[in-house]
Amino acid sequence: MGNGQFASVLSFSSAITRMRIHDNSDVLKIPELVYDYSDEYNCYDVWLMSDYIDDPQFYYGGPGRNPKCP
């Protein structure tokens, strides 16, 4: 994570794109229910973009080790 920028700065964030779920039918599917969650909000942030695009995308990043991040 420690890229130095939170996920709100898209040009500096890491990204997960074109996510697919592999189930027992051997068909790759776009996940139906996707949400973003960060349990250490002082350490990193995650942002989900799913409006106006076909595939959900996660952007994530954070400042890395700091006094507020255990």
From TrEMBL:
Residues 1-70 form the Neprosin PEP catalytic domain. This is Neprosin PEP catalytic domain-containing protein. It comes from Vigna angularis var. angularis. It comes from the Eukaryota.
